[in-house]
Structure formats: C-alpha cells, structure tokens
Specification:
Length: 280
C-alpha cells in the first residue's frame, strides 16, 4: 500500500505540473500572447489616453483567465492524467502486439472510468469513485511492468536457445555416462549432468512462471473490464450497501496480487540470470 500511495502522490504532483504546462502552451494561450505583442508594436496608442503597456495588462489578465480555467476544468485534468499514464506506460515500447493490445485496452478502461467520475455530480459518490479510479492507476502500472517482463522473456534469444539445447545436452550426458568406465571421467560427467539438470529445472520454472503470468495478465484485463461495468452501474444508494467499498477493495486486491506476481517473476528471472552468469 505504501508503494501505491507513493505512486499516487507522484502522479498528482506530475499531473499538476503537466496541467500548468498545458495551460501555458495551449493554442489559446499562444494566440493571446501573440496578439498582445502585435498590438503593442502595431497599435501602441489607439486612443489618446491609451498607453502601450495597457495591452500588456489586458494580455496578462486574459492569460491568467486561460490558466485558471485550464486548471479548474475537469476535462483538462482528465486528459492530462490520461496522457501522462499513456506516456509513462507506453504500449509502443512493447514488441509483442498481444501485450500492446492488452495495455491499450487497460488504458482505455481507465480513461472511460475518469469520464464516468467527471459525469457524476459532486458528493460522496463522486469521492468514492475518484478514490477507486486512483487505485486503477497503480493497477495499470503493475500490468505494464508485468507486460514488460513477459515481452522481454519472449524476445530473449538466450532463453529460447537454451530451451532447445539444454534437453539435448542432458540426453547426450546421460548417454556418455551410461558407457563411460573411467571413474574420474564419470565423476566429471555426473557433476556436469547435475549442473545441467539444475539449469533445466530453472528454465522450466521460468517458463511456468511466464505462462502463469500471461494467463493472469489476460484475466486481470477482464477483471478491469468487470470493475468498469460495476462502476457504471453503481448509484448513490449503493454506498450504504457497501458495494462501492467492495469495488475499492477488489481494486486494492488486484494491485497487490499483480505486485506479488511481478516480484516473483523478478526473483525467478534473477536466479536464471545468475545461473547463466556463473556458467560462463
């Protein structure tokens, strides 16, 4: 939970900075600045009482209004957060189209959830929905990290090579051991065989972990769609029944479960890499 809350604080801080940056660089802001400069140089005194710096004051007021409306506009905040998540968890960084499509779907669900919150009137229900959607940010973050590891595994040529060669090496070592008569050579073969068997077991563990993770990633995307459907159906009266809290608890559980899978994958993958390094 501490990592999730830390992520939320980071996202809020970055989203505020992004909204301020968006307000300054949006088209309306650029046009206001350009028009102010043009009026200062082209029409510095349209009336006898007018001073050139009056245009500067008017331009500053107009720019301030644009910034304030941008920062207080829910649609702007929604768009900025969605863009930030897509930038931070960019599906284009994944090579496997299957993982890209899943992440695209997850980001689409998140954006639709934000729209749902925006369309909900002010009150306790909106506060609850906001808290739930914030939890989905961390959910997508873990989906991305899981996708990155699966994508790297699929592209790992060394692992793919070893999955083919190690069983062949095991068979050859067993054949040699069956016919070898010299004690010292048999000892060496047995030691190599034991090391190769451990490598094969590690490869199988890694493969099994990746297959389970792939299935879990597919399932968690369906769970995210289910959460979205439930959020669309929730009403103010559901607050008293505890339905909203159950949805929030489901999201928290999903975040925690995905984090555990990511950590387990890191441990298995790290052990495999250590073994490869040692064997070189």
């Amino acid at each position: 939970m501490s990592s999730e809350s830390g992520f939320q604080e980071e996202l809020k801080g970055r989203s505020w900075q992004a909204m301020v940056s968006y307000a300054f660089f949006r088209l309306e802001s650029a046009l206001t600045i350009a028009l102010t400069l043009i009026l200062i140089f082209v029409l510095p005194q349209p009336f006898p009482f007018w001073q050139w710096w009056y245009w500067l004051i008017l331009g500053g007021v107009a720019e301030a209004l644009i910034i304030v409306t941008s920062l207080t506009d829910p649609e702007t905040g929604e768009r900025v957060v969605a863009d930030m998540l897509r930038d931070k968890y960019n599906p284009a960084t994944l090579h496997n189209s299957k993982y890209r499509q899943r992440l695209d779907q997850a980001l689409d669900y998140h954006q639709r959830m934000q729209e749902l919150v925006r369309q909900t009137g002010q009150g306790v229900l909106r506060d609850r929905l906001t808290e739930s959607v914030e939890g989905v940010d961390a959910w997508i973050g873990n989906m991305y990290r899981l996708s990155v590891r699966l994508d790297a595994y699929d592209a790992d040529k060394v692992i793919a090579r070893d999955m083919k060669l190690v069983p062949q090496t095991l068979a050859q070592l067993k054949q040699r051991l069956a016919i070898e008569t010299k004690p010292e050579v048999r000892t060496q073969i047995e030691q190599t065989l034991a090391s190769t068997q451990a490598q094969w077991q590690s490869l199988q563990n890694l493969q099994g972990m990746m297959e389970k993770a792939d299935l879990q990633l597919e399932k968690t995307l369906s769970d995210l769609g289910n959460i979205y459907s439930q959020l669309r159906q929730i009403e103010a009266r559901d607050l008293e029944s505890g339905r909203a809290q159950r949805i929030a608890d489901d999201i928290t559980a999903q975040v925690s479960m995905l984090q555990d899978i990511v950590d387990s994958m890191d441990q298995v993958y790290s052990a495999q890499n250590d073994r490869l390094t040692t064997s070189k």
